[in-house]
Structures are given as structure tokens and as C-alpha cells.
Amino acid sequence: MKSVMKTLMLAAALSVAASAAQAADGVLIQETTVTNGTPRTHQIQIEKNRMRAETSRANGEKEVFLFDGAKQVMWIINYDKKTYSEMTKADIDRVGGQVNDAMAKMQEQLKSLPPEQRARVEAMMAGRGGMPGGAPAAVAKTEYKKVGTDKVGKWACDKYEGSRGGQKTSEMCTVDPQTLGFTAADFEVSRQLQEFFGKLLPAGGDSMFRIGTGQAEGFNGIPVRHVTFGAAPTTSEISSVTRQTFPESTFAVPEGFTKEASPFGGRGRQ
């Protein structure tokens, strides 16, 4: 699931023939991500309210993530096992509420500890993802600063640096979608996906693909390159974006696949 989410958080940007732009209503993005020196290729298919992200690994395994913004449902498909799991907005909100409640209780408990002991506990929590068991902790919003221009493939782009608490955490280079035949409406589903995960990942916008419009996100345009630093440095670059028309089956769970329990529990019914 993590690699699929990284596909969503890093996908973007853009080149398309004007004639094709008038003929199709979908967007096909080809992207490569390198994490700790290991490359993965991704294909992202987008319509106004639907998204499909497919990751191909070096060993031939295929992961697929589907999201339907109108239905407010996402599916994770395992093609090797021929299984899938389903998550609704209610599932996400329920788990997000539980995580937030647990974090609030733990923060209250930490207040009673001596400063040095509290610092050790907080460092341990950060190393495990924020909560015992690896549940995510709240993350400060990333602040972006434009630092110049660059070039990614054939695209001239605006370069930004992202930081949290004064520490540099990411870089990105963006292009204006309109200069390449696109509009923000072509990527409406990215906003829907961000809202879908709003309660579970209130500060997790950095991990999802979205268009920067200035004040809200802190940057403008669509990232054609996105670099994140940390324990697992990752670089993602777009190689091509074209207009496409997709068959209905693109955004459907394949027939005959078995439904498994949701990773968040409670939704494994047949």
C-alpha cells in the first residue's frame, strides 16, 4: 500500500498534443520513482472523479490502487493473489478519529513526565511512526520557498524547497498545467483524494499528488520532479503525460477477485 500511496503522492506533469487534448477526457501519466537506489515504474490514469495507479516492481509484481471520488471508496488490488480490499470514507474517518484520540491521551500522559524522560519517549515514538505500533503522529505543515528554475526532461520548471521546523525535507520542480494543454479541472480527483484522507492524514498533503495554487499549498503548478529526504530518500520524475480515453473496466475491480478484510478492519464482507 505504501508504494501505491507514494505513486499518488508523487505523480504529475505534462506534455500533450493540442489535437489529442480536444479528443479525450482522461490523463495518462508515466512516472519513475527511485527509493534508496531501487527504481519502480508507475502508470497513473486519471478522470475527473476517478484514479487508477499501477506500480510495476522489478520482480514483476503489480500493485493497483483505485479511487472513486463520487462514491468515496478506494480499493487496493493484489493481482498475484487475485484479491482486493475496500475502504470507505467512513472507515477512514473512524480510524482517523481513533488515532487522534489516542494521540491526545498520550500527549496528556507525557505532560506528567520529567523533561528528559519525555524527550526519550517522544524520540522513540517518532522512530516508530508517531505512536506505539507505528500509527502516524501529527506532522507540521511543510513550508515551500521558490529558489529558482530548473529543467526536468523537456520541461522548464520552477524549483521549490520544502521545510518543516526550519529543516529542509523536500524539493520539487513544477510546471503550469495550462501551458501544456491542461487545467486544474483535469486533476479534480486529487483534491477529492486529499479530502478523503483528511481525518486520517490531516497533515499528509505532502504525500499525495495535488496541484499547487499558491497560498493554500505554498507552491504553484504540478510537480514534474519531487524529491523527499529522510530515512528512505525518494526521487520521482514524470516521463510523459498524454490525453487518453479509458474503458470503464480501467476503474473496476477485476471479475473473480476475492474481497479481503480492509486494512482498517470491519469491511471484509463479501
Structure overview:
The protein has 270 residues and is α+β, with helices and mostly antiparallel strands. 26% of the residues are buried. Strands 1, 2, 3, 4, 5, 6, 7, 8, 9, 10, 11, 12 and 13 form a 13-stranded mixed sheet that branches. Helices cover 22% and strands 36% of the residues.
Proportion of strand residues: 35-45%
Helix content: 10-25%
Largest sheet: 13 strands, mixed
- Helices, by number, come to 5
User: Rg, please?
Assistant: 19 Å
Low-confidence stretches: 9-23, 126-138
Work out the number of β strands: 13
Tell me the overall shape. globular
Question: How is the secondary structure organized here?
Answer:
Blueprint: H1 2-10, H2 18-23, E1 26-35, E2 38-46, E3 50-56, E4 62-68, E5 73-78, E6 83-88, H3 89-110, H4 115-127, E7 143-152, E8 155-164, E9 167-175, H5 188-196, E10 212-213, E11 220-228, E12 234-244, E13 258-259
Parallel strand pairs: 6-13
Antiparallel strand pairs: 1-2, 1-12, 2-3, 3-4, 4-5, 5-6, 7-8, 8-9, 9-11, 10-11, 11-12
